[in-house]
Amino acid sequence: MKIVTYNVNGIKARLPRVVEYLTEDQPDIVCVQELKSSDETFPLKEIEDAGYGALWHGQKAWNGVAVLAKGTTPVERQRGLEGEPEDEHSRYLECEVHDVIVASLYLPNGNPRPGPKFDYKLRWMERLAQRAAAILAEERPAVLAGDYNVIPNDDDTYSVRAMQEDALMQPESRAAYRKLLAQGWTDALRTREPKGGVWTFWDYQAGAWQRDAGFRIDHLLLSPQAADRLVGAGVDKAYRGREKASDHAPTFVTLR
Q1: Do the beta carbons of residue 49 and residue 98 sit within 8 Å?
Q2: What's the family (predicted)?
């Protein structure tokens, strides 16, 4: 079973690339982020024509997450995180596909910092940790897949100096990420690539793709029951280099 996280940076703008990926690669589950689409304008027909069922939690022009499943429709478990009722950002969608719990999540960027956006990021990560603990308590295969907007380690970026002031790499952001791992989640890509140097995002600016000046912010965290089934993990990097591609590459885990 191949489970993918893919920040598409606008599903309508990138729809040809998304359909291309689905038809060429045929992953079993795709957790999509940054739809930038309202619920009403989600391109369901094109997704279904590619052979996938879908659930989505949209937001006009911003945010938005979805779960796509090959040959079936995901079963919704929860949308949004508890703990902040006034939070209207569409950033979390939790589903069940076959025997696996999957959550597609899009964490706040947090810039500029310090300030309210960084404070919101940290509160959101605390709320995620509470939900993650509840999922772990079910003792089932589960995958928290998404754009975490966190660079966990120095070797997860092309340049520590370039990113040192960014919200993605602050000690508070990293500590919140480590708190998730300490619950018992496994960072799948890190497990397979322990030396780092693997990127999932390359900015559109300053020739970042051409220079391979990227960093790793798209993560798939596995519950112990899912980690026991881990076969592989990686980045489908070539899709970042295609015409009018997202600035993220599909990032995946393979489970037995």
Answers
A1: no
A2: Belongs to the DNA repair enzymes AP/ExoA family.
